[in-house]
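Re: the request from the purification team.
They wanted to know what the chain is likely to look like in 3D before they choose a buffer screen. I agreed to run a prediction and write the result into the notebook, where they can find it.
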Amino acid sequence: MAHLFRDLSLGHSKRESTQPPLQTKPQPMPSKLTSTDLQSPLGQLATQLTDSDLQLTAYDVFLAACRTSSSKPFSTSASFNSDSTSHHSPSQNHNHSPNSPALQCSLTSAAASKMKKALGLKSPGSSSSSKTSPGSRPGSGQGKSKRPTTVGELMRIQIRVPETVDSRVRRALLRVGGGLVGRRIESVVLPLELLQQLKQSDFTDQQEYDAWQKRNLKVLEAGLLLHPRVPLDKSNNASQRLRQIIHAALDRPIETGKNNESMQVLRSAVMSLASRSDGSLSDSCHWADGFPLNLRLYEMLLETCFDINDETSIVEEVDELMEHIKKTWVILGINQMLHSLCFTWVLFHHFVATGQVEMDLLYAADRQLAEVAKDAKTTKDPEYSKILSSTLSSILGWAEKRLLAYHDTFDSGNIYTMQGIVSLGVSAAKILVEDVSTEYRRKRKGEVDVARNRIDTYIRSSLRTAFAQRMEKADSSRRASKNQPNPLPVLAILAKDVGELAVHEKQVFSPILKGWHPLAAGVAVATLHACYANEIKQFISGIMELTPDAVQVLRAADTLEKDLVQIAVEDAVDSDDGGKAIIREMPPYEAEAAIANLVKGWIKTRLDRLKEWVDRNLQQEVWNPQANQDGYAPSAVEILRIIDESLDAFFQLPIPTHPALLPDLMAGLDRCLQYYVIKAKSGCGSRNTYIPTMPALTRCETASKFQGVWKKKEKSQNSQKRNSQVATMNGDNSFGIPQLCVRINTLHSIRSEMDVLEKRIITHLRNCESAHVEDFSNGLSKKFELTPAACVEGVQQLSEAVAYKIVFHDLSHVLWDGLYVGEHSSSRIDPLLQELEQNLLIISETVHEGVRTRIITDIMKASCDGFLLVLLAGGPSRAFTRQDSQIIEDDFKAIKDLFWANGDGLPADLIDKFSATVRGVLPLFRTDTESLIERFRRVTLETYGSSAKSRLPLPPTSGQWNPTEPNTLLRVLCYRNDETASKFLKKTYNLPKKL
């Protein structure tokens, strides 16, 4: 049968046309398996038995086990070998004796394999490329090939045993069988019997014989001493004696094939150990059924199910082959549970070792693992549990090595393998957790979802690894582009990469993993979110000021977060909680808040500087009306320019939240402008600042002898006050009338500019990428609120201050100190009107036309108030007779004419409105004294009621002059140069004639 091996020996292609020399010595089983990181979990032997030794021993066991399946003796391989070229002919089987033993059963390859169908393995017809049967090779002419026709031949070819070895073993088994009448094969120690039956002359050379003898002795050592079925007693003499015999024989081979003393001693020691009972009632010898020797031998037999020409496929004759392999169970101590576990491992190992390309092997292993799972739930055997745990741990370890970093493991070229690997890994994990782990049994079953937990772990681990790689890549990209203009910050690059990674995860991996975890994509993006959160939060904590890089990173982080959350929400749309648990794992980066805080810091810095600028510049401001042609302060021009620049700078910030943060900036600028307005008007006084204190009430001195004295006294005071007013009018300080006018112009200009700024802000918003229609359509939120009101209030205050300062302070020498003092004919209104007109000219030239009318109106009001104050509270230096009323009325008309200015001044209705009080009071000066007294009594009684009947109370000064008001009537009487009035005041109130 040498032609069956010439294409299969190590180092030769099955397609070679030349025939290699016949192999006569046992050779290691050549393999294309390439696994280097997968150790067998079935156990390691404590003796130096090579894989070749184990394969040959497994073949011995196979032949012996199958030999006893028939009462007929074995025939050699030559007895059923044929050189016919028609091995595929069904009639070929007629060449064999009908009494052939089990090994020579014909192979029915035409029938579909039930086992392959159960495991989901394809038949040759379903594959795109036909596979060559074991032992076949291309024909030299007709293209015909030979194939094994019996199970025995198939096994010999699969395990690569040379014909000479096969023939020798079969001869030995025939001799052994002669002495087994009425006994089963498991009742003998096969290596011992082979040593007894074969001698040196049965081998080609001494070297082959020595190797064969050492192998069998090592097998005896492994099965009886190192890995016995029944544990050895330390005091067992047989074990010590056998150990000595084996070690001596390994150094100096014994003579086999004879019933000599050496063999008798060996047999005695071997049988003494092998025949020890394991608790069963059988008479089996235990030499190959101890763990892990039996599993390693059985693994070698299961390996033969794979086609030696294509190690990714199982032979078509696997049903018959497996049937015969199972006959070794009685010798190896294998049962169905161990078979399922070992076969699962072999299927899985072949998938891994052949490059992980044949998914059928992986799916077959997964299906076989389902049988293992059933067994694991029904057995409590500690030895089985130990092997089960080791095997599943090895499978799970291999799978998790790939799944814990599946981004590195899978790509477009092998993504099709991922589902199978995940399924196998999860199945192994479930058995380990649910049937092996004691921790699981202590918990209620519903509390642990093994599959979901494992997938969760794989996703998080793989995404963390992928993130770290993207982080390193981003750092490298940044270093590579550092010499380029405006290189992207690392975290901005990373955010983009992580976003792409999330999309790739969602599209490629999540659909696969969703079969075990309903929120696979959500867990993935939550993991990426957490990874990036560590970086961005550290970045945010280190930002001290707003920079383009900082904004770029924060915007990238915000975009990434929105994308990740969107994926999580979409993934959880059908979940029970709507994805709330996943979203809770994604606390916001607060990138927008960080941007907002940075912008607020930027705003605060600008506002602080602006406030300092206001303080510094207002201290230096001289309010010079000649500073510019518009008549307002240079500091106002500058602050408006700074505010305009601040707005421009704000809208140039590369942030997405201009509309949201604009109110903060506007409120701050508004406060700064308001502060400027308040500072600009501070210290300028108001209406009440300049109105003099009214002297105490006195009655009039009817004689004229004191008038000269009063005139002298007043004259000296007038001259001092006049000198002080000259200095003020010349502008020696910042509170002169021209300077006050500049302040008014300034506030008016700021108020006008507010509208311009607000329109400019709307324009900025329209050009802002992040703005929406409602952001600029709602004008209320884009207006300055404090400054316009402060400007209006400031203009009003300053206007009144100017008016009352002119009338009561600057012109007091001609009003308060001169008007109607002494002789009325020589102290009339003309001097006041002359100086008042000069001031009106100055104001008209200085004040902006927008506020000019208001100031002149206030001056007229102040003039009317001053005129009434002289008449009603001018002190004892003034006295009026009824005849003086005409002079007074004429003077009042002169005041009105001044402001009317022949129609070029104030409108007549305005003049009438603000002179109404004077017009109402002046008729009292024409009224006779008795009528005044009577009116005063009546009005007082009406005001104070019955309490005023016994004694008229002194009415208080309200300052609101009115012809029906008691205090106004009383004051007219006080200044009436009349005896009746004097006596009434003396009698009623005991008023003095002088202060």
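For the purification team: Residues 510 and 806 are 86 Å apart (CA to CA).
Please add any questions underneath this entry.
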